Amino acid sequence: MREMILSTVAAVTLVAAPSATLAGDWKGWSIHPEDYPNTVAMQAFAEKVAEVTDGRVTPTVYAGGVLGSQPDAIEQVRAGALEWANFNMGPMGEIVPATNVLSLPFVFRDVDHMHVAMDGEVGDQFSAALSESGLVALSWFDSGSRSFYNSKQPIAEPADMNGMKFRVMNNDLYVQMVSQLGGNATPMAYGEVYQSLQTGVIDGAENNYPSFESSGHFEVAKYYSITNHLIIPECLCVSTIVWDQVSEDDKVAIAAAAQEAAEIQRDLWAKRELASREKVEAAGATINEVKDPLAFQAAMEPIYAKFIAQNPALESLIADIQSAK
Fold it and tell me: Would the pLDDT of 13 be above 50?
């Protein structure tokens, strides 16, 4: 663990940034509610950092997206206007093209495979790519596996999605994914999904159990079909501009605190997934596990072929992920 932390610190400190006086108060962005595993882990990180730096750095967590949307927050962290955040890698592709690999459907076999890959050399490669765009990834959070849900019917095979409109995050790979499965993809801000489901602007969306539950989407789209099509890690990220102002000793201590936060988040996440599933089922949601996931995976072959043709330099990264053990 210590070797991984030190290698991360070494990688991200290669990026030059303007010199400035370190501001000890770090504002942290989270899209999630205060009781969400990610936000709880961020608070643990904030408390640990204040302790290990003897108050030289005092992070604060602003939950619930009160400081803006994720695209806005990404730009604020890159500019140093916000010091740190928890970002999902899904919408990061427009800024850091290498992270689009993480949005390829079924690129990870399961959540455990994602943990192994991101905690090792694969994660280091993504950290290096992010650092070139002003973001220092200190550790990787879990966001579970994402599945489709809708207001019309259970999904057992790709044909069941024909003609339905699904909200996706703003990334062309997700648009392609839904199209390959026969649906119509609609990129949309997360905060607009509930009303859009309620009014029939869209028929469904895709996300993990905790988001399906905490957003209330289960109230207006009760059919949740377990496809596990996306397993997208999230980063605990610090602004490169801010990071370059931190002493080397504090960098190591802060990076270690980020690793501890990731362990806390993953443990809480596993518990929250179970609790969320139980809650939505008790409220009347219908959950079915897709019995033939290979049919969904096979439909993704054109996406992989097109992606590799357009990004030949990333083919080896895909191979590294798939071979990670």
Answer: no
